[in-house]
Design a protein that fits this description.
Radius of gyration of chain A: 16 Å
CATH class of the largest domain in chain B: Alpha Beta
Oligomer: heterodimer
Distance between the termini of chain A: 36 Å
Structural class of chain A: mainly beta
Shape of chain B: globular
Strand content of chain B: 15-25%
Order of helices and strands of chain A: HEEEEEEEEEE
Strand content of chain A: 35-45%
Strand order of the largest sheet of chain B: 3-2-4-7-1-8-13-12-10-11
Number of helices of chain B: 14
Helix content of chain B: 25-40%
Structural class of chain B: alpha/beta
Number of strands of chain B: 13
CATH architecture of the largest domain in chain B: 3-Layer(aba) Sandwich
Number of strands of chain A: 10
Helix content of chain A: under 10%
Number of domains of chain A: 1
Number of helices of chain A: 1
CATH topology of the largest domain in chain B: Peroxisomal Thiolase, Chain A, domain 1
Largest sheet of chain B: 10 strands, mixed
Amino acid sequence: MEQAQAQQGMVPALPDLFDFAGERVRLRSAKCNSCGTYFFPESHAQHRSGCSREGVEKVLLNNRGKLASWTIEHYMCPPPFKTSANIAPYGIGLVEFPEGIQVAGLIMESNLDVLKIGQDVETITYTLYKNDEGQDVVTWAFRVLKQA
Amino acid sequence: MREVSIVGVGLHPWGKFKDKTFVEIGTVAIANALKDADVEWKDIQAIFSGIYIYGGNAGHISGQYLESVFGETGIPVVNVYNACATGSAAIRMAYNSIAAGETDTALAVGVDISPEGFLSAKSDNPKQDRDVLRWRMTGMPNPVYWALECRKRMAKYGTTDEDLARVKVVLSQYGSKNPNARYKKTYTLEEVANSLMVCDPLRLLEVCATSDGAAAVILSAAPAAIRKANRPVKIAATTMGSAIYGDPTLRISALSAPARAEAPLLSESYSASQQAYKKAGIGPEDIDVLELPDNSSWHYLQYLETCGFCGEGEAEKMLRDGQTQIGGKVAVCPSGGFSSFGEAIGAQAIWQVVEASNQLRGRCGERQVPDAKVAMAQTYGLMGNSGTTILKI
């Protein structure tokens, strides 16, 4: 899967976190079918106490969710956050997915002046920088839909 | 279990000391504690030392290096790390050692010399060190986490920018009167509200700095030590709590949280404080002095509710009505708080206990809470770390 993605000229900054092979970007989660918990990242197990921990399957989260919270970071994050340019001020959102999990990520391609809890967002890729091979090194981000 | 008392406390001032070593500043704190307690080094029977995470291999065995300064005696030396609740862990282990009868007198110490600016990742190994992800993938330093919770709180309870500013105003009044404080300036609402925005809605004066500092407490159950001590303070409870499944707080370092709350916000702190109330046989209404972890103005408000000092959504009113000031329902952070000191990770929880015990011993001058009999020190640590210490005199 990641080979196909690399052929798009994009590589993830770290592996196994999100899928962008298809039309829509989707975060890679795992669901425990015994206790019903969703994990993100997929390897961050957080079972309900007493769970047998059996029946964990990898799943892709819905592309879309709702903004559960947001902030605007006015100071550039220190390394190891690496971007091709200073992007401050930048938005960070906490998005609630229909699966019942909230996930954090950058807010991009959105008007930061009109962010509101409850806005519909979609998951996208965001290019952090270009690597030595000329590929876009990407992470996931959230774009607010239907903004003024 | 035996009753355990604090017989002496010591601090190294809070500030920036990049030319000093963690051993030098830890030594100052320990020496001050020995002097305060009038205890000799040979009477210390165990050392519980906070791991100094910026000191590599040596920092991970901070206790051994500190013991070496005063004299190696073969006693148990344990090094412990629980994020910003590290000091709580050290105190709890010292307490348990004495209460169980393993020792009569023990030392708990914490030190920190922080890097400049924001704290950052500590390894470049994302596979083992999951903390690396929130830096590399989402550019999320610690204040982002507080801002996200604060924004939720504003939407839910109508917290205003003025409420957030008022926290700093109140804390700075006390910091200005604390000779140990790093920041002694008092602020008006306008000055705080006009300070630079860091992570919306939190402004520069609404988030604490990082500081260097060291703190030590000597605990004892030995009758001779207690007799010699200058107003010993009893430890009614000292606990540690971890997170509870279903806690919707986005914990620092995590990238996700459950959407549906099945546990309280800051569940690790709720757990630690509930255990402490139960062990001490009291409730929040019995607390005269509360040192809570005011990493930000959000923390100040949220912790009042998490620890049961008011109902959900009522913290803003408690603050606005002056009920968190000396003379109010409970004196909150009469030390001046993290706001006036900055945070020194490994030392902070011990510093809180030092400040709380100073109140019970009547040493606080203009900041003295009249007739203070019961004090509580509550910590906040990333990824489900917390500890509570309740003191009585």
